[in-house]
Design brief:
With 291 residues, the protein is an alpha+beta fold. It has two domains: 137 residues, Diaminopimelate Epimerase, Chain A, domain 1 (Roll); 134 residues, Diaminopimelate Epimerase, Chain A, domain 1 (Roll), CATH 3.10.310.10. It has an 18-stranded mixed beta sheet that branches. It is globular and about 50 Å long.
């Protein structure tokens, strides 16, 4: 198990990087201001978010998920894989199959080992729902599937998906970073999404493959997102554009996704530890003062 004061582990899932902390080791509180300071890539450690271990009565472990802007996320597919590897590698568990409670529900994870090392992690990220009340999406109760939505005078066709956290999937013929940077923040904060939303621009490359670009709520563009891959896959299946087993390719890499007939979605992919470190110096002093 990780030892020492003010220690953390940094890991990434396909370039989507998180810090993992056990709050029992910290000499400061993780306030929104502290989270922003830690995640800042020039004067902090730098990360797409922070995973904080918490006790759970519903699962073997619990986690709070912080975005780099200090807000909290309900669920993260990449974060769950990073945390799962952390728990195994640092001696919190020797089980290969266990559960983690997130604010968006309980997720089951299964570790695949090779030569005693974690090689891949499968996460059950929950059941996809297209119901407006689940996402949520403003307006009357309905399924939001290939629905028109006006953004800056442009009419888009969007599919909204909840996996315990909100997603807005837009299928396009071509994916461009400039398009993501234009549409991402506008969709994230669109009045149609009262709790904001994650955004996926998706292209069907083949019956068994999607390419997506990701704009995460509270983080902006990221190299990859597990729940975004799951949401885009579920939307593609719902629209009849893809089969239930498919690969979802993102700038950071590819996840294997299975959308079951009951709309439960499983992700399989890697997670890697980058470093083990300690908060120190001026950053630590700022964190202790952060309120």
């Amino acid at each position: 198990m990780m030892r020492g004061r003010d220690w953390f582990v940094k890991g990434h899932g396909l370039g989507n990087d998180y810090l993992v902390v056990d709050p029992r080791a910290l000499s400061f509180s993780l306030t929104p201001r502290a989270v922003r300071a830690i995640c800042e890539r020039h004067t902090g450690v730098g990360a797409d978010g922070i995973l904080v271990l918490t006790p759970s009565r519903r699962a073997a472990f619990g986690v709070r998920i912080f975005n780099p802007d200090g807000s909290e996320a309900e669920k993260s597919g990449n974060g769950l894989r990073i945390l799962s590897r952390f728990l195994y590698d640092h001696g919190y568990t020797r089980r290969r199959d266990f559960t983690i409670e997130t604010p968006g529900g309980v997720a089951r994870v299964t570790l695949r080992l090779r030569a005693g090392q974690v090689d891949a992690i499968t996460v059950d990220v929950g059941r996809a729902s297209f119901q407006s009340t689940a996402v949520p999406v403003a307006g009357p109760p309905r399924e939001v599937v290939d629905e028109p939505l006006e953004v800056d005078g442009e009419s888009l066709r969007v599919t909204a998906v909840s996996l315990g956290n909100p997603h807005c999937v837009v299928f396009l013929e071509r994916l461009e970073a400039a398009r993501l940077h234009h549409l991402g923040p506008r969709l994230e904060t669109h009045p149609a999404f009262p709790q904001r939303t994650n955004v996926q621009l998706a292209r069907v490359a083949a019956r068994g493959r999607l390419d997506i670009l990701v704009w995460e709520r509270g983080a902006g563009e990221t190299q990859a997102s597990g729940t975004s891959a799951a949401a885009a896959a579920a939307a593609a299946v719902r629209l009849g554009r893809a089969g239930r087993r498919l690969s979802v390719a993102m700038p950071g890499g590819t996840l294997a996704v299975r959308v079951k007939p009951d709309w439960t979605v499983h992700l399989t992919g890697p997670a890697e530890e980058v470093c083990v470190g300690a908060f120190a110096g001026g950053l630590l002093r700022r964190l202790r003062r952060a309120r």
